[in-house]
Design a protein that fits this description.
single chain; about 55 residues; mainly alpha; rod-shaped
């Protein structure tokens, strides 16, 4: 095989791995919170008072 074909194949496989990793990280939830990364899961509601009827 030609060296150029091997290099292009390796670059293609690396790109597939990179895109697959991005998709995997966006689908699988993180252990510490949700996968969106917006920070709303870590809000402290301990000071919020709940009104009772």
């Amino acid at each position: 095989m030609d060296v150029q074909i091997i290099l292009v194949g390796l670059l293609f496989l690396a790109a597939l791995f990179y895109i697959g990793r991005i998709i995997y990280r966006s689908v699988v939830p993180k252990k510490g919170g949700c996968a969106s990364g917006c920070g709303k899961c870590g809000v402290d509601f301990s000071n919020v008072e709940i009104k009772k009827k």
